[in-house]
């Protein structure tokens, strides 16, 4: 169910949603996803709370679109470059009579080679393809980022209570007061050193939940270039391809 309650955004009701969330498409369109029977009168307050993120995300996407010109095509990647985990995957589209879509993964036979992700079926449906690729990226992120975070945690001597990898998110990562760390699957598109910095940043938050001097001092012991990397991470959203913001 989709409707347009006013200028600037659309509302979509999802049976799977447990809480409202915001999505900005690669065309710069804002969508509010709400659970069934959600009180839509609460949406304006939610948008006001997330105003800075909305403006920042829309501006980033429009800047990226500017590189493509006024016309933004149905963005479907031919290559998935995941520098954080050192992987490259070619994307093959095989159209067929099926209404749905099936994704088949063909890992490389030797290290350093390019694997293949094959989409079979209704490949003419761009949004269906993008959703399938976003799900695949999230699964790949869970498989590779979680054990990597555990390794960095042990090296730093900073344990955490739990870890979750989320779909397209508004932040690279976060740490709760209960020492639960949440990672965005978009981290896979960043350079290896910046992802490791994000891990260390959140692990230090298990001890110092704020950004006090003690926090930065503790982080600097683990990563002397933390201030520089922090600035790079804040500008790194441009590394995330447009179709991930669907």
Short description:
With 246 residues, this protein is of the alpha/beta class. It is built from six helices and eleven strands. β3 (21-24) and β4 form a beta hairpin.
Structural features, described:
With 246 residues, the protein is α/β, with parallel strands linked by helices. It folds into two domains: 2-66, no CATH class; 79-245, Metalloproteases ("zincins"), catalytic domain (Zincin-like, 2-Layer Sandwich), CATH 3.30.2010.10. It contains six helices and eleven strands. The chain has helices at 43-49, 51-66, 126-156, 192-205, 213-222, 226-234; strands spanning 2-6, 9-14, 21-24, 30-35, 79-82, 87-95, 101-106, 115-121, 162-166, 173-175, 180-184. The strands form three sheets. A four-stranded mixed beta sheet has the order 1-2-4-3, covered by helices on one side. Helix 4 packs across helix 5 (213-222). The two termini are 17 Å apart.
Order of neighbouring strands in the sheet with most strands: 1-2-4-3
Mean pLDDT: 86
DSSP strand count: 11
CATH fold label of the largest domain:
Zincin-like
- State the share of residues found in helices, binned by percent: 25-40%
Q: What value does the Rg take, in angstroms?
A: 19 Å
β-strand percent reads 15-25%
Overall tally of structural domains: 2
Structural class: alpha/beta
Helix/strand order:
EEEEHHEEEEHEEEHHH
Mind summarizing the main beta sheet? 4 strands, mixed
Morphology: globular
Q: State the separation between the terminal residues, measured CA to CA.
A: 17 Å
User: Which residues sit in consecutive blocks of at least 5 with pLDDT less than 50?
Assistant: 1-7, 68-73
CATH class categorisation of the largest domain = Alpha Beta
CATH superfamily of the largest domain: Metalloproteases ("zincins"), catalytic domain
- Shape-level CATH architecture of the largest domain: 2-Layer Sandwich
H/I helix tally: 6
